[in-house]
Amino acid sequence: MTTPAADRAALDPVLSASPARRAIPPAVWGALAIVYVVWGSTYLGIRIVVETMPPFLSAGARFVVAGLVLGALVAWRRGPGALRVTRAQAASAAVVGLLLLLGGNGMVVLAETSIPSGLAALLVAVVPAWVVVLRRAFGERPGPGAYGGVALGLAGLAVLTLPGLSGDVRLSGVLAVVVGAVLWSVGSFASSRIPMPADPFAASAYEMVAGGLGCAGVALLRGEYTGFSPGDVSVRSWTAFALLVLFGSLVAFTAYAWLLHSAPLSLVATYAYVNPVVAVLLGSLVLGEALTWPIMVGGGVVVAGVCLIVSTERRR
After folding, report:
1. Would you call 307 exposed, middle or buried from its count of C-beta atoms within 10 A (0-12, 13-18, 19+)?
2. Could you tell me which of 221, 195, 196 has the C-alpha nearest to residue 106?
C-alpha cells in the first residue's frame, strides 16, 4: 500500500480534478515509473518479510522507522517549525495513521502470511470503489460512470474471493484484506475532512509513527514479541524490510509528492490500476504465485472498474 498522505491526495482531489493539457516531460515519466514499480513491489516485499518476521511487529517497526526518518528529513530541509502542529492536527494525524496503517496496511500484512501477494494487491485495488461509496453516503454525487466502476469493482471482488470460498487459499486472509481495504478507504476519506498538518510530509511522518506504534501495540497483544529473536529473521526478510522502509516509504513517497506539484493529477492517479498489475506479475515471477482464473478474471474486472472511476471522475 501507498504512503498515507500520498494516498489521501490521490483518492480525493484526483477524483475531481481536471487534467492539465501540457506536454509530459521525461522527469515526470521517470517519477511515475518509480511510483508504478516501487509501490507495486511493496506487496512482494511484505510477503517476503512475513516469511520469518511476525506481521504486526514488522509493520510497526517499518512505519516507526520510516516516520522518524521522514520527520528528521523534514526538520533538516525545512526547519523544525515545519513539524509544529496543533493538538487537533496531531490527533487527526494519529487517527488517520491508525486507520490507514494499523487497520489498512496491518490487515494486509497479516493476510499475506496466508494468501499470495498478487491476490492481496488486487483485493486492495478496490479501494477507489469504496471511496466512491463513502462519498455518496456523505451526500456527494459522483458521476454515473463512477457507479459503474463501483459495480465492476465489487463484481471483481466477488470473483477474487472465490479462491477463499473454494479452499484454495485461506478465506480468513481474503476477508482480512477486504476489511483492511475498507478501513484504508475510511482513513483516506476522513483525512481530507478533518484538521490535518499543513505540510503533507510532516503529516505523513506523524501518521506513520502513530500507525507504527499502533501495529507494535497489536503485536504485543498477539504475543508476537514472545520468543522472537532478530537472529531468527532471514537475510532475505531483512533485505525486503530495508527496501520497504527506504524505497516503499521514502523514495516513492518523495517521487509522488513531487508529481503532485509537477504533473496532471489525473495522470498521477493511474498508479491505482498499475500497481496491482505490477504486484501480480512480480508475485508470479519472483515467488512463483499461480495465476489462476479467478485472479486473472477478477483482477481484470477490478482494474477495469478502477480505470472507469478515475477516467470518469477526472472529467467532472
Report:
1. middle
2. 221
Cell numbers that stand for 94 in this block: 494519529
CA pair distance 288, 219, nearest whole angstrom: 29
Helix, strand, coil tally for the chain in percent (to 5): 80, 0, 20
DSSP 232: G
Residue with cell 514488522: 58
The per-residue pLDDT for 144 is 79
The per-residue pLDDT for 66 is 93
Q: Higher confidence at residue 221 or residue 39?
A: 221
Q: At a CB cut-off of 8 Å and minimum separation 6, what does 247 contact?
A: 38
Cβ atoms < 10 Å from Cβ of 223? 10
Q: Give the burial class of 211: count Cβ atoms within 10 A of its Cβ; 0-12 exposed, 13-18 middle, 19 or more buried.
A: buried
CA proximity to 208, closest of 78, 49, 80, 101: 101
d(CA 244, CA 20): 32
Q: Which amino acid is at 101?
A: L
The grid cell for 166 is: 473454494
What does the alpha-carbon distance between residue 308 and residue 153 come to, in Å, rounded to a whole number?
10
